[in-house]
Design brief:
The protein has about 280 residues and is an alpha+beta fold. It has helices at about 20-25, 30-45, 50-55, 60-70, 75-90, 95-110, 115-135, 135-155, 165-170, 190-200, 220-235, 255-265, and strands at about 160-165, 180-190, 210-215, 250-255, 270. It is globular and about 55 Å long. The two termini are about 20 Å apart.
Length: about 280
C-alpha cells in the first residue's frame, strides 16, 4: 500500500566504508551538531511531518499517530517517518518516487535560514536523491509494485470515490510549487472500474493509472452525491478540471492532501492505497 515497500532499508551504520566524499557518490551522514539542528527544525515544524515527528518522539505507534490526526489508515506515517530518517540520519530511500518526495522536502527546507553546515549536508544529499529519482530501471520496478497495490484495492469492489493518477504526473507535477497534478476523481464501483481500465487501453493514456485513494460511501446513490460534492469543491478551490482532449471531465489539477481533507469533512472512510507524489 505504499511506494516504500520496494526499497531496501539501509541504516547509516550499514552504509559504512569509504566516506562519500572519497567515492564521489552516496549519501552523507550529519554531524552531531547538524543532527541537533535538524531535530529543532522538526520539533518546530507545523505541517504533518512535524506532527509525525512529535508523535514518534512520544513513542506512539503508527496507528496511534494516525488516530491522533484523524486518518483511518496509517500508511502515510511510514512515508513521513522515511523523510524524518533521511533528514536525521542521511539514510536516503532507494525507491524513485520516495526519493522524489524526500528531495522536495529537502528543497523546501533549503529555502529557510540555515547554518552553513546544515545547508551543505542537505545539498549534498539532495544530489543523491535526484540521481535516485531519475533512475529509470528503479522506476520500472517501483511501478510494478504500485500496480500490484492498485489491483488488490480494486478487487475489494468498494463503492465510493476513487482517485487515480499516472506515474509521470506524480513525478512531474503540473504545478511544482504547490504540488498539484492531474488526478482522476470519480465515482466507482466494479463496473465503472472495468470501464475505466478498458478506456486506458484504448485512449491516449501512456501509462497504467495508479490508484491513490478510495473514499468509501454509503451505496451507489451516496457515491453519486459525493462525486458531485467533490467536483464542486475542487472547482470552488481553484483545482481546475483538465482541458486536455485525452482526459475526461473527472481529471483535476489537485493533490491528495486537499482531497483527504474534503473526504474527512464529508465523514467518508479514507483508504490510502498508494502514498506517492508530493506530501506537503
Amino acid at each position: 500500500m505504499r511506494a516504500m515497500d520496494v526499497e531496501a532499508e539501509v541504516s547509516p551504520e550499514e552504509n559504512s566504508g569509504p566516506e562519500p566524499e572519497a567515492r564521489g557518490l552516496g549519501p552523507i551522514r550529519p554531524s552531531a551538531e547538524v543532527r541537533t539542528e535538524v531535530e529543532a527544525l522538526l520539533e518546530a515544524d507545523g505541517s504533518r511531518l512535524g506532527d509525525v515527528y512529535r508523535g514518534v518522539r512520544r513513542g506512539l505507534s503508527a496507528e496511534a499517530i494516525a488516530e491522533d490526526l484523524n486518518v483511518t489508515t496509517c500508511n502515510f506515517v511510514w512515508n513521513y517517518r522515511r523523510i524524518i530518517k533521511a533528514l536525521l540520519d542521511g539514510a536516503l530511500p532507494t525507491a524513485p518516487t520516495v526519493a522524489f518526495q524526500v528531495a522536495r522536502k529537502f528543497k523546501s527546507i533549503l529555502k529557510s535560514p540555515l547554518s552553513s553546515a546544515l545547508r551543505s549536508y542537505l545539498e549534498s544529499n539532495l544530489e543523491e536523491l535526484e540521481r535516485t529519482a531519475n533512475n529509470e530501471t528503479a522506476r520500472a520496478v517501483e511501478a510494478e509494485h504500485l500496480q500490484e497495490e492498485t489491483k488488490q484495492a480494486e478487487a475489494l469492489n468498494e463503492i465510493g470515490i476513487y482517485v487515480y493518477s499516472l506515474p509521470h504526473y506524480l513525478l512531474h507535477p503540473f504545478e511544482p510549487k504547490s504540488g498539484r497534478t492531474l488526478m482522476k476523481v470519480g465515482r466507482s464501483d466494479s463496473d465503472v472500474i472495468a470501464r475505466f481500465r478498458n478506456q486506458t487501453r484504448t485512449t491516449a493514456l501512456p501509462e497504467e493509472p495508479v490508484l491513490l485513494r478510495i473514499y468509501r460511501t454509503d451505496g451507489a446513490a451516496g457515491s453519486g452525491d459525493a462525486e458531485n460534492d467533490f467536483h464542486r469543491l475542487l472547482e470552488a478551490a481553484g483545482h481546475d478540471r483538465s482541458v486536455a482532449r485525452s482526459a475526461g471531465r473527472e481529471w483535476f489539477v489537485t493533490h491528495t492532501k486537499f482531497l483527504d481533507e474534503v473526504a474527512r469533512v464529508m465523514r467518508l472512510h479514507v483508504r490510502i492505497v498508494n502514498e506517492v507524489g508530493v506530501l506537503e
